[in-house]
Amino acid sequence: ADTGPQKERVVTEEEWLQKWEMGNIGFHKEQRHPLLQKYLDVLLNGKSGLRIFFPLCGKAVEMKWLADMGHTVVGVEVSEQAVKEFFSDHSLPYCEEPVPEISGAKMFQSTSGNISLYCCSIYDLSSSIVGKFDGVWDRGALVAVNPCDRQRYASLMINLVEKNSSYLLVTVSYDPNKHKGPPFYVPESEIKSLFG
Fold first, then answer.
1. Distance between CA atoms of 36 and 123, rounded to whole angstroms?
2. Is residue 193 part of an annotated ligand binding site?
3. Hey, what's the signal peptide range on this chain (predicted)?
4. Among 58, 67, 104, 187, whose Cα sits 20 to 30 Å from the Cα of 91?
């Protein structure tokens, strides 16, 4: 499948930061995602106290929902504004500390300790820093990374998950010749080749 004009498209970190500054965040949803509600049992697999990863988390409301169920949530987001808005939107007290292994990165953690959001590039993370995860909710992350970085992204994600983890991935389907993205169109064949 040829994704046409999207293949070379690159969205810089600055552009993402600007979207948050300008409030141009149509991708943020105030309501819990219906697909997460529908497939929650697939993600949790009957287990409690899971570690769940939100790549490119923004201020996703599902993070609090899952944390309130007793899971530990870890997210990564390049916009500090988004991270701070998450905590203020939910009136959650938090503390902020540097991440020694990543220059310039900060980690924002809820006082209750069950939500930790890393403010940095996702590519700076590794399992030695954040550990491994039992579940991943990828809503708008794979489709937001630049097409040229997809392989790198998938390799990182595979490295961050435990053997028996669940990975819920939401993609978008449309004619890539009509929109430049993001969100980018990722054909199913490519998802299979990325994640195996």
1. 25
2. no
3. none
4. 104
